[in-house]
Amino acid sequence: MRRHSRIVRIGKVKIGGDNPVLVQSMTKTDTRDISSTVKQILSLEDVGCEIIRVAVPDKEAANAISEIKKQIHIPLIADIHFDPRLAELSILNGADKIRLNPSNIEDKEWIVKIAKIAKERGVPIRVGANLGSFKVRPTNVVKALIDSVANEIKILNDVDFDDIVVSIKSSDVITTLQANMKIAKMFDYPLHLGITEAGPLFESLVKSSAGIGYLLINGIGDTIRYSISDEPTVEVEAGFSLLKALHLRERGLTIISCPTCGRCEIDLFPMVKRVKSEFGNISVPLKVAIMGCVVNGPGEARDADIGLAGGKHSGVIFKHGKIVKTVPEKDLYNEFKKELIKLIKERSSS
Ligand code: SF4
Q1: Ligand 1 center to residue 258 CA distance, Å?
Q2: What pTM did the predictor assign?
Q3: Residues of the chain with CATH 3.20.20.20
Q4: Which residues partner with 78 through β-bridges?
Q5: CA 248 to CA 157: how far, in whole Å?
Q6: Which of 200, 278, 321, 328 makes a 20 to 30 Å CA pair with 343?
Q7: How far, CA to CA in Å, does 4 sit from each of 185, 287, 330?
Q8: pLDDT digits over 279-330, tens only?
Q9: First to last CA, the chain
Q10: CATH number assigned to the domain with residue range 253-349, chosen from the 4 options 3.40.50.12500, 3.30.413.10, 3.40.50.1220, 3.40.50.720
Q11: CA 222 to CA 17: how far, in whole Å?
């Protein structure tokens, strides 16, 4: 059962409550370089990114937000560290949410000021703790992370601000799990999930899916971000793959493909790659099966909307696990592609 969390609005989207778990990412460009940042955000929108965060290290970056916002279509979060003036400036420039660590702000007048302006403009604040933010490694890391977040929440609550999103991240999966399980019971603020500094693609996919997946299966989490040392679009693709695997979201292409074995009758891997590259960006939910042989192909892919399977010098195309057409092997992919395009058109117009 999903944990009860309060609803927080971020620009035109909402997280928490019964709202879908949203997928977000962070730009890897210099925010002051407006055209590169916009270009990257638009490419993220193309793969379904629903919320974007940008780093705001100085005034020029905070001021760039207003122009960036004019050219994008998804809510923007300003990521601020240490300097409260940048939080104020980011909100004035149209940031839909800010990520801030109030315990880093020594002048409490600034906390009052930021809370006031954020409240007036309906801008939520994400507070959070990362293991990396501690100067000295604490003896009890989970407790330290929770105490840090609880302190940040208290600082904002004390100035009558509770439009809050919480995140607790560590590069260690088990630490992240334990801390999130505990914080989920202490507060009802929506939780942003992620394994921080999770490494390159392969390592991050494993660690993030294990950590974020475990929490989501336990009903915890309202928005997710895969942190990957790679192109930001793969963070979004990974996020949706996980949500689809857990039946939490339905979106675009899902590929069911076999690993191949000694029975395989076709050159399967290039076909899987072609389907992914040619149809990976469709928005209608569609399950496509690509199987190496007819022995197990249609049966294993019974849940698929459409599929292909290798046969002797030929291949079969099937829909919902039933064979509908047998074609010579050389024509297999092209015939399959025609059927697939037909099905996408039908789905898009229904
Ligand atoms: S579908 Fe056929 S080729 Fe693929 S793994 Fe199963 S038995 Fe092997």
Answers
A1: 6
A2: 0.92
A3: 8-245
A4: 54, 98
A5: 32
A6: 328
A7: 10, 31, 54
A8: 988 889 999 999 998 887 777 777 799 999 998 888 999 998 788 899 998 9
A9: 32
A10: 3.30.413.10
A11: 8
